[in-house]
C-alpha cells in the first residue's frame, strides 16, 4: 500500500527524519488558512499516489495566503496521470542548494534490503541509473545486523557527500532504515533529500510503500488508507476478505486456490480471451464466500461472462454447487456463467447444478472447454450490448 507524501512525512518525523512543517488542505480556503498559519512562502503540493507531480504542474510555490488559495484552486481536481487531486499538502517553502536521493528497498535477488544514495537527486533516479550509474552508491544491509553507522559513512563517501554534511546524512540513513524496518515497508524513498543554503539536510518528498500483509501489526498505518482512492471492487473485496485483483478483460474468473486461478488466466488468454480479474475464493469455499466473491465480480461493469473453475481437494464440489445455487437465488446475476467442477464430490456437485437448472449457467467438464465457452459467451454479450 502506497502512502501519500504527507503521511510518509508523518512517519519520517516519528523516526526523527527532519521534514518541513505543513498542513493538509482539501479546499482553497483551507490552503489559505494553512499558509496564514505557516507564514511566509509556502509550497502547495498535490497529494496523489503517483510520482512526477512537479513536472505535471501539481507543485507550486506561493508567496503567501492569497497565492496559496489561487494555486490550490488550480491544483485541486487536476488529473495527474489518471489520479485526481483531492487533497493538498501545504508546507513551508525551502531554499535548496542541492538535491540528493536516498532510498531503502528490497533487492529480492540478493534477499537483502538495499540502500541507495546519490547526490544527483530531484530528477528521475531511473535516468541517473541509466546515464550515470556510477553516481548511485549502493549498500546491502544484513537484515539481522541492520545498518551500522560506519556503513552509512562509507555510503556517504562513495556517493560524494561533502564531509561537512555526512554527519547529518548518516543520521538520516540510519533513521530511514529504522522507518523501513519499523513500519515493515517495501520502499522508503526521499527524493529530493535537500541541502539548504545554510547546510541543513531535510526530506522534501516522501515515498513510503508498506507491506499490505503486515498492516495488521500497524493499525495506525492501516488507518491511513484512503478508501476513496481505492478501486471500488478492490475495496469491496477487502471488506469481504476475498483475494481479488482487477484486470483489463471481460471474463470474470473465480477459482479455488491461487495456482488454479493463475492457470485459468493462462488458459483464457491461450483461447484468445482476456480476464477481467483474478479472484481466489480460497480453500473450503462455502456458500457465503461464493456469494461474497460473486458480488465483487458482478460489481465490475466490464464483466461479460463468468468462468467458475473449481478443483475439489479439501473443497467439496457439492458444497461449491450449493454456494452457486444460493448465490444465484439471492443475487441478480445477469451475466452468463460457465462452471467447471472437478475433483472431490464433483459428480454430486454437477447433479445438484443440473437439478437446480439455473438460468444462464452452463456446466463444462474441462478447464479448456469452460474457458472457450466463457469467452464465446462474453463475446456474444459484448456484441449484444454494442448493437
Ligand atoms: P515529485 O515531483 O512528485 O517528485 O514531487 P517533489 O516533492 O519531489 O517536488 C518536485 C520538485 O519541486 C523538487 O525536486 C523541488 O525542486 C521542487 N520543490 C518542492 N518543494 C520545494 C520547496 O519547498 N522549495 C523549492 N525551492 N522547491 C521545491
Ligand atoms: Mn520527488
Short description:
The protein is 40% helix and 24% strand. The protein has 387 residues and is an alpha+beta fold. The chain has three domains: 21-92, ATP-grasp fold, A domain (Dna Ligase, domain 1), CATH 3.30.1490.20; 98-222, D-amino Acid Aminotransferase, Chain A, domain 1 (2-Layer Sandwich), CATH 3.30.470.20; 231-386, 3-Layer(aba) Sandwich (Rossmann fold), CATH 3.40.50.261.
List key phrases describing it.
six-stranded mixed beta sheet; binds manganese (II) ion; 387 residues; Dna Ligase, domain 1; binds guanosine-5'-diphosphate; Rossmann fold; alpha+beta
What's the CATH topology label of the largest domain? Rossmann fold
Helix content: 25-40%
CATH level-4 homologous superfamily of the largest domain:
Succinyl-CoA synthetase domains
Number of strands: 18
Structural notes for this entry:
The protein is α+β, with helices and mostly antiparallel strands and 387 residues long. The protein has three domains: 21-92, ATP-grasp fold, A domain (Dna Ligase, domain 1, 2-Layer Sandwich); 98-222, D-amino Acid Aminotransferase, Chain A, domain 1 (2-Layer Sandwich), CATH 3.30.470; 231-386, Succinyl-CoA synthetase domains (Rossmann fold). Helix content is 40%, strand content 24%. It is built from 13 helices and 18 strands. The strands form four sheets. Strands 7, 8, 9, 10, 11 and 12 form a six-stranded antiparallel beta sheet that branches. Helix 2 (28-38) packs antiparallel against helix 3 (65-75), helix 10 (287-298) packs across helix 11 and helix 11 runs parallel beside helix 12 (346-356). The longest helix has 20 residues, at 163-182. It is elongated. The protein starts with a helix and ends with a helix. It binds guanosine-5'-diphosphate (GDP) and manganese (II) ion.
Amino acid at each position: 500500500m502506497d502512502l501519500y507524501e504527507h503521511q510518509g512525512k508523518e512517519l519520517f518525523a516519528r523516526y526523527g527524519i527532519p521534514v518541513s512543517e505543513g498542513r493538509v488542505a482539501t479546499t482553497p480556503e483551507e490552503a489559505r488558512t494553512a499558509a496564514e498559519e505557516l507564514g511566509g512562502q509556502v509550497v502547495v503540493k498535490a497529494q496523489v499516489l503517483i510520482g512526477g507531480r512537479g513536472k505535471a504542474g501539481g507543485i507550486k510555490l506561493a508567496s503567501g495566503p492569497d497565492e496559496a488559495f489561487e494555486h490550490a484552486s488550480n491544483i485541486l481536481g487536476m488529473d495527474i496521470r489518471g489520479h485526481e487531486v483531492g487533497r493538498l499538502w501545504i508546507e513551508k517553502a525551502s531554499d535548496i542548494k542541492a538535491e540528493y536521493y536516498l532510498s531503502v528497498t528490497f533487492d529480492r535477488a540478493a534477499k537483502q534490503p538495499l540502500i541507495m544514495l546519490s547526490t544527483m537527486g530531484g530528477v528521475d533516479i531511473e535516468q541517473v541509473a541509466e546515464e550515470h550509474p556510477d553516481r548511485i552508491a549502493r549498500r546491502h544491509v544484513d537484515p539481522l545486523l541492520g545498518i551500522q553507522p560506519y556503513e552509512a559513512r562509507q555510503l556517504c563517501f562513495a556517493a560524494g557527500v561533502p564531509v561537512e554534511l555526512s554527519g547529518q546524512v548518516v543520521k538520516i540513513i540510519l533513521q530511514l532504515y529504522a522507518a523501513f524496518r519499523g513500519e515493515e515497508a517495501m520502499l522508503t524513498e526521499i527524493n529530493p533529500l535537500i541541502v539548504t543554503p545554510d547546510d541543513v539536510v531535510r526530506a522534501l518528498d516522501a515515498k513510503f510503500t508498506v507491506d499490505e500483509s503486515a498492516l495488521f501489526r500497524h493499525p495506525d498505518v492501516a488507518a491511513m488508507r484512503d478508501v476513496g482512492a481505492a478501486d471500488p471492487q478492490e475495496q469491496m473485496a477487502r471488506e469481504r476478505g476475498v483475494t481479488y485483483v482487477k484486470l483489463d478483460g471481460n471474463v470474470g474468473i473465480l477459482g479455488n486456490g491461487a495456482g488454479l486461478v493463475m492457470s485459468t488466466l493462462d488458459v483464457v488468454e491461450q483461447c484468445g480471451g482476456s480476464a477481467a480479474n483474478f479472484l481466489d475464493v480460497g480453500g473450503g469455499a462455502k456458500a457465503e464466500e461464493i456469494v461474497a466473491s460473486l458480488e465483487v465480480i458482478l460489481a465490475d461493469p466490464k464483466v461479460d461472462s463468468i468462468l467458475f473453475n473449481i478443483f475439489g481437494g479439501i473443497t467439496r464440489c457439492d458444497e461449491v454447487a450449493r454456494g452457486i445455487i444460493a448465490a444465484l437465488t439471492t443475487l441478480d446475476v445477469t451475466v452468463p456463467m460457465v462452471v467447471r467442477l472437478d475433483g472431490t464430490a464433483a459428480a454430486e456437485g454437477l447433479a445438484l447444478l443440473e437439478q437446480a437448472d439455473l438460468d444462464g449457467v452452463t456446466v463444462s467438464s474441462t478447464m479448456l472447454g469452460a474457458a472457450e465457452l466463457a469467452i464465446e459467451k462474453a463475446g456474444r454479450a459484448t456484441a449484444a450490448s454494442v448493437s
